[in-house]
Design brief:
Layout: H1 2-24, E1 32-43, E2 48-58, E3 63-66, H2 79-86, E4 90-96, E5 99-104, E6 110-117, E7 120-124, E8 127-132, E9 143-153, E10 161-171, E11 176-186, E12 194-205, E13 208-213, E14 218-225, E15 233-236, E16 239-243
Antiparallel strand pairs: 1-2, 1-8, 2-3, 3-4, 4-5, 5-6, 6-7, 7-8, 9-10, 9-16, 10-11, 11-12, 12-13, 13-14, 14-15, 15-16
């Protein structure tokens, strides 16, 4: 009886471990997305520093891309499109057991060697690329998200006026959306001078979000819930859209 109980426990433990591995392993026959976060010292004169995010895309054909493409969308990517967007970010990779070796062909043949660690890839002591699974589906979004970009004018470290862009998207569970973009919106509550309003239907396939406008156009974005902030932050092409409703 004791032997039987131990055997059943071991089988259950192995099964749970396998499921845990599945949660952190991406399908190598599909595009794979990874993100690393690194803390850099803050520079008060340039306004840069703090937490910085790095992305890595691996295609099934052995192509690597350093970052998230802005003009193309995961789920629709080809090597030729990535080269056209930014050839310096394009390379080739090989997975050899617990190592991932990337050669950045168009950037002086620089070589990265990353070590496998807990479902991700560690580049060095301060940067580990964690896997991001496609974690959204059509009809599951029912909230409003906003992205705000600001830029200060004036002397370094001294902000005289702040202008930027406000991009707000309302997703509805019935598969419709409404989007408003305002350019020149100021931090003191100014509405801005230029804007656009759009509405239509949306679909999500893997990492790809498609906005099909009532005007007859379609825009596509790479979409995922931000790791660690899944309930409040949505990423579109790597930009953080904060949930407000």
């Amino acid at each position: 009886m004791t032997t039987l109980v131990v055997s059943v426990f071991l089988l259950s433990f192995q099964s749970s471990c396998s499921k845990e591995d599945d949660n952190t392993t991406l399908d190598a026959t599909q595009e794979r997305l990874f993100m690393a976060t690194k803390n850099t010292p803050y520079n008060p004169f340039t306004g840069t520093g703090g937490l910085k995010n790095y992305f890595l895309v691996l295609l099934p054909d052995g192509t690597a891309y350093n970052g998230i493409p802005r003009q193309s969308t995961l789920g629709l990517l080809t090597r030729a499109e990535l080269i056209q967007e930014n050839s310096l970010r394009v390379g080739e990779y090989e997975e050899n057991g617990n190592q991932l070796v990337i050669t950045w062909t168009f950037n002086q043949n620089k070589v990265w060697t990353l070590e496998k660690e807990s479902g991700g890839w560690r580049q060095n002591s301060t940067k580990k690329y964690e896997p991001i699974k496609p974690n959204l589906a059509s009809g599951t979004l029912d909230a409003t998200y906003v992205f705000e970009h600001t830029g200060a004018s004036g002397f370094p470290g001294i902000s005289i006026n702040t202008l930027g862009v406000r991009d707000q998207i309302q997703f509805n569970r019935d598969g419709t959306y409404a989007r408003t973009i305002i350019a020149g919106a100021s931090s003191d509550g100014g509405v801005g001078t230029n804007g656009s309003i759009d509405a239509g239907t949306y679909t999500i396939e893997g990492y790809a979000l498609h906005l099909e406008s009532n005007q007859g156009t379609t825009l596509s974005f790479t979409i995922f819930k931000w790791p660690g902030e899944e309930s409040t932050v949505l990423a579109l092409n790597g930009k953080r859209f904060q949930r407000i409703q």
